[in-house]
Amino acid sequence: MDKFKAVLDLHLKHRSTLGYGVVTLLTAGGERLFSAVVFQCPCSEAWNLPYGLVFLLVPALALFLLGYALSARTWRLLTGCCARTRGCAGLRGMVVCVQLSAAAALAPLTWVAVALLGGSFYECAASGSTALGSRLCRGRDPVCAQQLPRVPCGQAKPPEVQDLLKDLKAQSQILGWFLICSASFFSLLTTCYARCRSKVSYLQLSFWKTYAQKEQEHLENTFVDYANMLSERNLKSFFENKRPDVFPMPTFAAWEAASELHCFHPSQQHYSTLHRVVDDGLVPCPQDAETTRILVGTAQDL
What we know:
Blueprint: H1 2-13, H2 15-37, H3 48-69, H4 72-78, H5 91-104, H6 106-118, H7 120-127, H8 130-136, H9 144-147, H10 159-162, H11 164-196, H12 202-240, H13 252-258, H14 273-280, H15 287-301
Helix pairs in contact: 2-6, 3-5, 3-6, 3-7, 6-11, 7-11
């Protein structure tokens, strides 16, 4: 039991790191499987370049968009954005967008890097490039440019042209390692800059992360508890045909305020938007009555 608790504590403590690691491994494994099972270079002068680029870049784009769609912060930023008079602009919104983009870029970069290290997609695309072909075939057999698209399939007739496959693989792997090093360096640089500009100390930042994690866990559990109690009250009132008891719930203004993006101020040590809303108190909003009427009208239409 103690070992299980230790493993669970380790998982909770390093959940983000483990999550990124799992995403990286799944993306790398998916790329290898995709390359071995699905990818078949057409070995055609007209199709090699677009075919190779599609397999190299389109899945990366799909993974990037999926990273946005699966992030809860994306929907927290966008939900109700068009209906709010203040909109979603501002420095904090831009910072969150950059953070979302950085997190969503992990899987696409992994896909492209692993694909370049494997070399299959690049070999197919590069062999169909006229500009790269003229450069590779400079000083070689006159039929080199015509036979180059057949190189990925091993069908190029002159042996010296077929040997260009090694050059294409070397170029692909060099680009892959360059991408990995560049992404790692940029990630380290931005992390160092963010920590250098941090308004809180290392210990306070560690406490902030722990608090945010625990608050999210308690918030999800509280959602379930209150949803159960409210549904039980409504069903009991419906079947017993009597007026329901008063059920305390946050106002529309409270929900709106607690859903805003959090910005830390050293003068007010609030570690989340909910923390700030609770400490500052809830101010009634004149939109509550209007929103209630809209929701009631919508329910009646349904």
